[in-house]
Amino acid sequence: MIPFRHHLISLVAVFFSLGIGILLGGMTGHSWFSVEEQAVLSKMETRYSQALKSNNELKQQLNRLLIEMERNNEEAAHLMAVRYADAMQGNKVYVWQSPELQIGRLLRLFEQVGVEIVPYGQGSAPLDGPILALGKTKPDWLEQLPGECRWLFVDKVPETFSQQWGLLDRVQKLMAEMRVEREKS
């Protein structure tokens, strides 16, 4: 059996907690409590408005930068086409790539310059253009090509315009070497 004193203490505790609950519940309507609540809400709304404004400004800035970047890309591609058009237009480049590489942008760049892209299959030795081999590792068959066949191995697809410009420069030099050798013979 539970002694009467425990019953009495638990009954007092229940009424005491009920009184505290009523007191706290009744204070929420008082002005001093809602003033602080309003201040907190006002600060949160201000911060939210600032965050929205900042977010919109950043979106606008990002859109401007994307438009500017696209315009710069077009200008750079045009400059490359003008720079290499005379030396490379109408020439062939045989391209071999390992299957995991995506070279669509690079092929479009060669086409803009006026180079005819021909897919290369192992076994033949083209004499009318260099071979551009793209892959993570250099294929063994490149070293076994005849001496008059020119090739260039690239282990990483150029992403930036400066890298693409450098690759076009190297391909142009190969084409010039081939042209000089043909003129000698």
Write the SSE topology.
Blueprint: H1 4-27, H2 31-88, E1 92-97, H3 104-113, E2 116-119, E3 131-134, E4 151-154, H4 161-184
Parallel strand pairs: 1-2, 1-3, 3-4
Helix pairs in contact: 2-4
Task: Describe the structure in your own words.
- By secondary structure, the chain is of the alpha/beta class.
- Helices cover 63% and strands 10% of the residues.
- The chain has four helices and four strands, in the order H-H-E-H-E-E-E-H.
- The protein has helices spanning 4-27, 31-88, 104-113, 161-184; strands spanning 92-97, 116-119, 131-134, 151-154.
- The protein has a four-stranded parallel sheet, covered by helices on one side.
- Helix 3 links the parallel strand 1 and strand 2.
- The model has no long low-confidence stretch (mean pLDDT 80).
List the main descriptive attributes of the protein structure presented here.
single chain; 185 residues; alpha/beta; 4 strands
Mean pLDDT across the residues is 80
Shape: elongated
The fraction of residues assigned to DSSP E strands is 5-15%
Using only C-alpha atoms, the radius of gyration works out to: 37 Å
Low-confidence stretches: none
- Distance N terminus to C terminus? 119 Å
What is the topology, as strand order, of the major beta sheet?
Answer: 2-1-3-4
Q: Would you tell me the structural class of the helices and strands?
A: alpha/beta
- The count of strands amounts to 4
Q: Major beta sheet, specifics?
A: 4 strands, parallel
Helicity, in percent?
Answer: 55-70%
Give the helices and strands as they follow along the chain: HHEHEEEH
Provide a count of the helices. 4
